[in-house]
Amino acid sequence: MSIESFKLADNxxxxxxxxxxxxxxxxxxxxxxxxxxxFEKEIELIVNPEDIIAVSCFSNNEKFISxxxxxxxxxxxxxxxxxxxxKERKTxxxxxxxIAIGKHIILTTKIEPGKExxxxxxVAKDFDNIEIISNxxxxxxxxxxxxxxxxxxxxxxxxxxxxNY
Length: 165
What we know:
Layout (H helix, E strand, L loop, with lengths): L1 E5 L5 E6 L4 E6 L5 E5 L4 E5 L5 E6 L5 H16 L3 E2 L13 E6 L1 E5 L11 E3 L8 E4 L4 E6 L5 E6 L10
Parallel strand pairs: 4-7, 9-10
Antiparallel strand pairs: 1-12, 2-3, 2-13, 3-6, 4-5, 6-8, 9-11, 11-12
């Protein structure tokens, strides 16, 4: 296991591809809050300039790379609210993509429903026990096994609509 450090431009996403899943990491890039909708209430999460957005996928299918870029775009540029599942949810349902936002995110496969913490993200087993840390300048991956994963950067894509009327 090692510590890897990456410089990311505001429009870049670090993709980490494992045997069983994908991970996308990007800077929060100037957003100051994210709304989290739960079944009981709406929560306002304050986002700091050094925070990062991490998206976890339980598939390593290439189509999810576009899904990660799209999800990050929707959070940063459109401001969609996130959904928080109820504590008593069925553990048999796991969505294809999960999200965490913060300066220090702990990746784990051992999250029990209702016992999550804000800085934890449920991930595929390839990424268990990795920590993602932002130090303003770099994104640091602590505990990563470079032999088991492939890492590369992609640019955030922008969907442009051309009005033909």
